[in-house]
Amino acid sequence: MTGEREADTLERDFQHTVDADQRIEPRDWMPDGYRRTLVRQIAQHAHSEIIGMQPEGNWITRAPSLRRKAILLAKVQDEAGHGLYLYAATETLGAAREDLTQKLLVGKQKYSSIFNYPTLTFADVGVIGWLVDGAAICNQVPLCRTSYGPYARAMIRICKEESFHQRQGYELLMTMMGGTDEQRAMVQDAVNRWWWPSLMMFGPPDDASPNTEQSMRWRIKRHTNDELRQKFVDMTVPQAEKLGVTLPDPELRWNAERGHYDFGAPDWDEFWQVVKGNGPCNAQRVAHRNRAHEEGAWVREAAAAYAEKRARGLDRLAQQQLATGGVA
Ligand code: FAQ
Questions:
Q1: CA separation (Å) from 43 to 284, 292, 318?
Q2: Which is one GO molecular function term here (predicted)?
């Protein structure tokens, strides 16, 4: 009985902290469900960054100039960095990175649906920067105020880099749109292929999103999937006009009454197929990640051997210092 009362008090205090917009830190008490939800979301996010290196990585060796190659290399490296910050955030919740990596490799944990589409031309690199990073920013800026401290702090740095990524994508597309008719057609074709998958990145509609309500109560999520999708559309339509491309949605129009753009519904059957592993590139992405993991085994072994050697050396040094009374 006392235990139950204690648990109630802990839960009430926890919710007070969250409602007061204060951060929960790793050593604070938290409900098991809160911890589980965070590990699920942050791990999926980390996996998305790591798998998300593949579609653009596909173009590094074929970038049309040294400048474009250097920019693309830096962007793809940033994505690896984001994955690492995020795995580190899950570790503060007691998750083991090896365990999460394993779950990604065997398909037990998800990553964003968007990375299961192919990158057919170099215009796709620009469109990923513009639309995919643009959608990522819309979704992730509110996460800088998410209730779990380490996740919120990781997101601040990630968002700064994502904004830069979005601008490089838009700049690339502006350059292509100022080029030949063929280049303009490549941009339009890439926009046609990436628009709907970008809208799907925000997750299912609110009435089909099982996690939103609780995640909003815990202030892990600050907005619903549909709210963020609307924000993205409102932000992107004027950018598309300036760029000179058409967004492939006949229902897209300004609604003065709502003060927002109306837009059509993505194909949710396609979304769930991709989430279930049946998208155009799911098998390829996971197979590639498994191959890279196997090929990187020697790096992990070497790093572990070095860490062990260093720890032994430090241990010896400490013993010597003890023996000499701290005089080297
Ligand atoms: N893809 O109840 P909800 C990036 C799953 S990073 C696959 O609404 P929730 C950077 C969902 O997990 C992109 N699965 O779920 C970059 C759940 O399944 P579960 C990643 C999805 O968590 C740019 C089920 O459906 N960003 O782009 C998707 O409340 C360029 C029901 O959904 C993040 O991860 C999806 N799109 O809301 C890198 C941001 N949507 O777990 C390279 C953080 C939903 O119960 C190049 N995450 N599902 O089995 C979030 O904000 C949320 O987790 C949502 C989903 C909004 C994604």
A1: 20, 19, 38
A2: phenylacetyl-CoA 1,2-epoxidase activity
Residue 129 alpha carbon, nearest atom of ligand 1: 30
On whether the pTM is more than 0.85, the answer is yes
Dist CA 154 CA 43 (whole Å):
13
Instruction: Answer for the pair 211, 225: CB distance below 8 angstroms, yes or no.
Output: no
Residue range 59-69: mean pLDDT, rounded: 97
Atom 25, ligand 1: residue with shortest CA distance = 203
Residue nearest atom 40 in ligand 1 by C-alpha distance: 203
The protein residue with its alpha carbon nearest to ligand 1, atom 44, reads 203
CA distance 130 to 135: 8
Kind plus residue range of the DSSP H or E element containing 286 = helix 282-295
Q: Which residues of 165-188 are buried (b: 16+ CB within 10 A; e: fewer)?
A: bbebbbebbbebbeeeeebbebbb
The answer to whether the beta carbons of residues 168 and 71 sit under 8 Å apart is: yes
Band of residue 230 on the pLDDT scale cut at 50, 70, 90: very high
The residues facing 254 across adjacent strands are 261
Q: For residue 193, which amino acid is it?
A: R
Q: Could you read off the pLDDT of 86-109 as tens digits, one per residue?
A: 999 999 999 999 999 999 999 999
23 contacts 14 by C-beta, under 8 angstroms:
no
Q: Extract long-range pairs of 203-207: CB within 8 Å, 24+ residues apart.
A: 204/268, 204/271, 204/272, 205/265, 205/268
Question: Coil, strand, or helix at residue 262?
Answer: strand
Cβ 173 vs Cβ 164: under 8 Å: no
Amino acid sitting at position 309: K
